[in-house]
Design brief:
Layout: H1 3-7, H2 12-20, H3 24-32, H4 39-45, H5 54-69, E1 72-82, H6 107-120, E2 125-130, H7 139-149, E3 155-159, H8 165-174, E4 178-180, H9 188-194, H10 203-216, E5 220-224, H11 232-249, E6 254-258, H12 278-291, E7 296-299, H13 305-311, E8 318-320, H14 348-357, E9 361-363
Parallel strand pairs: 1-2, 1-8, 1-9, 2-3, 3-4, 4-5, 5-6, 6-7, 7-8
Helix pairs in contact: 3-4, 4-12, 5-12, 6-7, 7-8, 8-10
């Protein structure tokens, strides 16, 4: 039984109503647990009833993170290989209908990007990102890119179109360590509204990709929802159910959670349906850490410097730095090609300095690499 067979058993409106009905007593009950929190406990921690407990949640989140990960923050850098995409996602700058210059990096250009990245930081963990164009930037292209960058990085992750199980095995043989794929929203009925055309319009195909990754033995799987599409509390609750299913089914795999809030982008402007405040995002991060002490929590340069600096010691384990969200962005920056507007545009050195001022050590690579 796959997660798509289970998701029908969760009623969106009932979950939403249940979260809003959580009481202070249920929040305290969840906070008093040290392990084995249920998704129902998680719902209490993200509920409005938990807002008065934010300081206590922050303290617990910091405590559990230090016990599991120490006083360390992992740095990674995204490398956008192409902005060519066949999808029509209404919230994305790479939307097929957007009138922007499309580029697919050549081998020479990829190596120029690597050279430029090495000049701005001692990165050993790289995330390769593409739009979804399986014809011109499919598995062959991705495998070639992995082999090109492998000599320069200890850990290679990808964020690309969902693939078949055997293709994940193939990429793992080429040097792949982790895969990040965001469902965007678990609201099956409204999903098509945000993804009207292209392969991404197929809800089940995207949802099933996490099972395909697990069966292929991917070392680390990253999940996330795009905050701004649907009620965030209900969406992340569905993701918590998904996480627990994956952990039980593919228990040898590590997991990571990301928290992307919608950012300005090229093309026709899509206005967020839901606005999440910084305080609510902090509450969500704390809730996930209390819910699961071992899951990695990642925060990108979508967020402002002040927020990233403050939250870095309170539950986050992974930060991007110096990010460019366009292909060719490190060697020759052309902003009109970017997927979304970066909010924290500080150099890796500046982010490193901010982390060190708080008494934390920066880890430039995946700290479990030696165990692989």
């Amino acid at each position: 039984m796959l997660f798509k067979d289970l998701i029908g058993g969760y009623d969106w409106e009932e979950l939403k109503s249940g979260i809003l009905k959580k009481t202070a007593g249920e929040v305290e009950q969840a906070l008093n647990k040290r392990r084995l929190l249920t998704v129902d406990d998680f719902m209490a921690l993200i509920s409005p009833a938990a807002e008065p407990y934010l300081e206590r949640m922050a303290a617990l989140s910091r405590q559990y993170t230090r016990l599991r990960f120490g006083k360390t923050i992992q740095f990674y850098v995204p490398l956008y290989l192409t902005n060519s995409c066949m999808n029509h996602c209404v919230y994305c700058g790479f939307n097929h209908n957007n009138d922007i210059k499309r580029i697919i990096l050549t081998d020479e250009q990829i190596l120029r990007e690597v050279e430029a990245i090495k000049k701005i930081g001692n990165f050993r963990h790289i995330l390769l990102v593409t739009g979804e164009n399986p014809r011109d930037a499919g598995v062959d292209y991705i495998e070639n890119a992995i082999r090109l960058v492998k000599p320069y990085f200890s850990s290679i992750s990808i964020e690309v179109q969902p693939l078949k199980e055997d293709n994940y095995r193939r990429l793992t043989s080429a040097g792949l360590n982790a895969v990040y794929c965001y469902q965007e929203t678990y609201h099956a009925q409204n999903y098509r509204m945000y993804h009207p055309r292209g392969m991404k319009s197929k809800f089940d195909w995207r949802l099933d990709v996490f099972d395909r990754m697990g069966k292929a033995g991917i070392h680390k799987i990253g999940l996330g929802v795009l905050i701004g599409l649907e009620d965030w509390r209900t969406d992340v609750t569905m993701m918590a159910f998904h996480l627990r299913y994956l952990q039980k089914t593919y228990w040898q795999t590590r997991y990571s959670i990301s928290f992307p809030r919608m950012r300005p982008h090229e093309g026709k402007s899509f206005r967020s349906n839901v606005i999440m405040s910084d305080r609510e995002l902090a509450q969500l991060i704390f809730a996930f850490r209390i819910f699961d002490h071992d899951v990695e929590l990642s925060l990108s340069t979508r967020e402002k410097p002040q927020f990233r600096d403050h939250i870095a010691t309170l539950g986050i384990t992974s930060l991007s730095a110096g990010s460019k969200t366009d292909p060719g962005g490190y060697a020759v920056y052309k902003k009109e090609l970017e997927q979304f507007a970066v909010s924290d545009d500080r150099s890796p050195e500046d982010v490193l300095s901010a982390v060190k001022k708080q008494g934390y050590e920066v880890v430039w690579k995946d700290w479990d690499l030696s165990l692989q």
